[in-house]
Amino acid sequence: MKVRLTTLCDNTVGASGLTGEWGLSILAEFRGEKVLLDAGFGDAVVKNADLIGVDLGGVDQIVLSHGHLDHTGGLTPLLQRMGRKIAVYAHPDVWDQKYSASLQPWGGEKGYHFIGIQQRRETLESLGADFRYDRAPVWLNDHMVTTGEVPMVTPFEFVEDNLCVKTETGYITDPLLDDQALVIKSERGLVVVLGCAHRGAVNTILHAKTITGVDRVHAVVGGTHLLRADDDQINQTAAALRELGVEKLGVSHCTGLPAAAMLAREFGPDFFFNTAGTVIEF
Q1: Within a 13 Å sphere around the CA of 159, how many CA atoms are in the beta-carbon half?
Q2: Would you call 92 helix, strand, or coil by DSSP?
C-alpha cells in the first residue's frame, strides 16, 4: 500500500494553470484515510484541487501545523467548499496573537506585523470546523499521527527571535510550541510531512521516531524553514538528515532557494522540489 501526497498549495507551481501563493497545504492519503495538513494562505487549495481533480469533500480530517496565516488563511474557502463538519486538530497555542517583528520585503515601516489566524474562531466553527486541541501527539488513525510539541534537542536548530506573541504586557518571543508535523507509518518507514518546521526539521524527525518507535525514515516532505539559515546551519541540517537515513527529500514553501539548492546537491536523485501540483507516491 502506497502513501500518496498531493501538494495543493505552495509558493511555486509545477504546471501551468495552477495557483501559487505564499503558504502550504498537503493532502496525505494512506490505507483509505485522507488527512489535509494546513490550508494555505488564500483560495489556492480550492482552485488547485479543482484543477487537478482532488475531491476536498473526501478529506477525513484537517491538521494545522501552527497558527500562522500562510497555513490557516485558506480555512474559510476550504470549509465553505466542504460544507460539513470536520475535525481540525491543532495545538492550543494556535490562537495566540502572533506577530513578526521585521521589515516587510516589499517595503513599509519596520515594526510588528500580524501573522496569526485572521478569522474568528466562531466563524470557522460556523463553517464546520470542529477544533480539537492537544499538546501531545494525536493518533488520527492506526497509521497517521501528529507530533504535538517538538522538543528542541539539536544544537543548530532554533526558533527565529523575530517571531513574537502579543500579550497584555507587550510582545514576547514566540517559542512556537504549536509547531507540529504529520507522520505516516508506511511499510517502507516513516513519511514525515512538515508544515514549516519552525522548531527544526531534524528535531521534528527525531521526535517522530520516538513517537512511533520506527527508526527508518523513508521520506521527508514540506517546509524546512531554512529560508534565513546560513550555510553552516544548512550543511549541518543536510548532514543530520543523511545520518538519520532519510531516503527521499522533497522541500517546499519556507525552505528557500539557496537551502533547496544545497540539499538538492547533497541528495541528488533522491531530492525533489515539492511545488503545488506535485503528486508523489511512496
Answers
A1: 19
A2: helix
Q: Are strands 129-133 and 170-173 parallel, antiparallel or unpaired?
A: unpaired
Q: What contacts 102, CB < 8 A, 6 or more positions away? A: 110, 113, 162
Q: How far apart are CA 99 and CA 173, in angstroms?
A: 9
pLDDT at 59 over 70: yes
- pLDDT-derived band of residue 111, with 50, 70 and 90 as boundaries? confident
Q: Over 90: is that where the pLDDT of 103 sits? A: no
The strand ranges marked E within 10-121 are 25-30, 33-37, 61-63, 86-90, 98-102, 111-114
Domains of the chain: 4-281 (3.60.15.10)
- The answer to whether 229 and 281 are in contact (CB under 8 A) is no
Q: Residue 78's closest CA among 97, 57, 107?
A: 57
Query: For residue 24, which of 223, 200, 271 has the smallest C-alpha distance?
Result: 223
Q: What does pTM read for this prediction?
A: 0.96
